[in-house]
Amino acid sequence: MIKVIGIGQTMRGDDAAGIRAVQYWQAAYPKSSQQPNVQVLIEELPGLALLDMLVGASFVVIADAVRSNVDPGTIHHLEITDLATFKPGLSSAHGWGMAETLALIGILGLSNMPEQISLVGIEAGDLNMGLTLSPPVTESLAQAAALIESLVTGVLATKVNGN
Amino acid sequence: MRQNIEVDALARVEGEGALYIRLKDGEINDIQVNIYEPPRFFEGFLQGRYYQEVPDITARICGICPVAYQMSSVQALEAALNITISPEVRALRRLLYCAEYIESHALHIYMLQAPDLLGHDSALSLAKVAPDVVRQALRLKKIGNSLLRVVGGRSVHPVNTCVGGFYKWPNKDELHNLVPELEWALEASKQTVDFAAALDYPDFSMDYEFVALTRDDEYAIYDGEVLSSTGLQVTATGYDSAYLETHVQHSNALHSHTKAGSSYFVGPLARLNLNYSQLRPAARQAAEKAGITLPMRNPFKNLLARAIELVEVCDLAIELAGNYLPVGPSHAEIKIRAGEGAGVSEAPRGLLYHHYIVDDQGMIRHAKITPPTAQNFAQMEADLWQYAPQVIDLPHEEATLACEHLIRSYDPCISCATHFLKLTIER
To answer: How far apart are CA A59 and CA A151, in angstroms?
Structure first.
């Protein structure tokens, strides 16, 4: 099972970039997004429940807004092992973010976790209240969706049996 | 040298706020728990909505305690519309509340406050040295969320609650199947009390006025009358004239005071001190084993009270889930009429009051919501006036952490109260 997960707060401007990127991919690439062994999950603020969302998948793509002080709309492709060095941008206002949650997998030795977790990060600009994305982030969605597509089709191609 | 304490974004609290402790000539001159999370206007946009939309809208105030918002709102509206719920509905609502307590308390005990008491800056560093503790926390929280899903229809922001009862009865087998997990949770909760009792709490106490719901026949969570440690006891309807809200300039959350103008304390410590004798035997035994003496007046020991409550709700949930047998309609028939009603319940972090006026078409004309954290803000600041002088001469980072820990011990839910939290000490 492949899971494609979009997270972020849709009311906080560019924080919704991950969710919008997954939705863009679903619309633009129906052939792969509608495969029976591909599951799409949209969750605004999963917190620790993100761990439960990963259970049972062999490969996961997570799309989320990030901040690393580069130009808004820049697309980052990260593997879970990159997260430790990507710290401040991925934390939420609560002092606990996706990086911390994913780090628990290794620290706690959690079972039934994916073999691979890839992250598609979209550099956020404006995080103020509002339902719209800033122009540079809106323009970057096609590129983010193309990256999701290449990750998913890459895995689909290697899994002939569709597991 | 003494310095101001400034925490612009408090971590490990729900929502966004700041703490500022400012000194003048070396003495503490000003203390502000500053809530800059924008006001959310829930009371405003409930006006003109149909009464049956209220529990689903108010549930959205909080992702941690949506059940509390549903339980206080449905009780207020049932009072306004003169609806009596069945004993089966009441039992199921208590079970739904247990689910929320399990996930909220497990999160706060282990992930939010324990790192402070164990000298860790986050649950992540705690997980590295005590993985079993964090694994236990995650499993407990998951059990709470599973129970929420089965009874409430969704693990966060449940959708099954309605004015009059539930939209539909949960599946009996699904609920009974959760009992073994709840039995594990009960044992884990007892271990949590042992864990909490062995922690080294900062030495600090205040002569609080505690306020919590109370009932003669059970440890009040879902409903009851509002009891103060001064002896004052009022019904839900009487709450509004006994406890008043005022605006303070530095905060987007209102501050609550008693009618006499004093701050008061709501939350686990208040409930435990006022209602200890109504605890079920399992929780009482766990408390006795922990060697607690009442009244407990150390706010940091909210964690210990939470652990004892975890035993209470797991034990109760086993009984309610095991005995669950849906009979009759899942909700009462409702005849719309104009009316006014108040409802109170105990959110995990303290008393939650709702008040509504409904017109003869069933539309909301007035809504008032007083969340627990707003009631505690004045008390948090009063605590800091006593606590900050004790810690201000510590190294700056340590002093800042100590003050942040005090705020965190209240498990403040700032999103609910705003109607974001930061900490600053200026010297």
So the answer is: 10
Ordered per-residue pLDDT tens for chain A, 163 residues: 999 999 988 888 999 999 999 999 999 999 999 999 999 999 887 878 889 899 999 999 999 998 888 899 999 998 877 765 444 434 444 556 777 788 888 888 888 999 999 999 999 999 888 899 999 999 999 999 999 999 999 999 886 444 4
Q: Distance between CA atoms of B360 and B335, rounded to whole angstroms?
A: 10
- The alpha carbon of residue B191 and the mean position of all alpha carbons in its chain are separated, in whole angstroms, by 22
- Edge to edge, the sheet with strand A116-123 lists A38-43, A2-7, A59-66, A116-123, A75-79
Residue A100 and residue B135: Cβ atoms within 8 Å? no
- Closest C-alpha among B46, B71, B90, B161 to residue B343: B71
> Which residue type occupies B376?
N
Residues in Cβ contact with B34 at an 8 Å cutoff, skipping those fewer than 6 apart: B17, B18, B19, B20, B250, B251, B421, B422
Strand A38-43 versus strand A2-7 pairing type: parallel
In order of A102, B69, B212, B260, B316, the CA distances from B267 in angstroms are: 31, 15, 7, 21, 19
CA distance A22 to A17: 9
pTM of this prediction?
Answer: 0.87
- The complex scores an ipTM of 0.72
Virtual torsion, Cα A28, A30, A31, A33, nearest 10 deg: 110
Strand ranges, E, within B160-265: 161-162, 165-166, 211-214, 225-228, 233-234, 243-246, 255-258
Cα B333-B334-B336 angle, rounded to 5 deg: 160
A108:B131 CB<8 A: yes
The pair of structure tokens assigned to B186 is 């009960």
Nearest to A144 by CA among A11, A28, A12: A28
Distance CA B416, CA A96 (A): 19
Nearest CA in chain B to A99: B124
Contacts of B122 in chain A (CB under 8 A): 95-96, 100
- What separation, in Å, do the N-terminal and C-terminal C-alpha atoms of chain A show? 6
Q: Which two tokens stand for residue A21?
A: 């990127």
Contact A104 B124 (CB under 8 A): yes
**Strand, helix or coil for residue A153:** helix
Q: Pairing mode, if any, of strands B225-228 and A2-7?
A: unpaired
Residues contacting B346, CB < 8 A, separation 6+: B68, B212, B213, B220, B221, B222, B224, B271, B352
B422 closest CA partner among A18, A95, A154, A158 = A95
Instruction: Tell me how far apart the alpha carbons of residues B366 and B347 are, in angstroms, rounded to a whole number.
Output: 22
Q: Is B41 strand, coil or helix?
A: coil
Q: Does A53 touch chain B (CB under 8 A)?
A: no
In a 3-state reduction of DSSP, which class is residue B282? helix
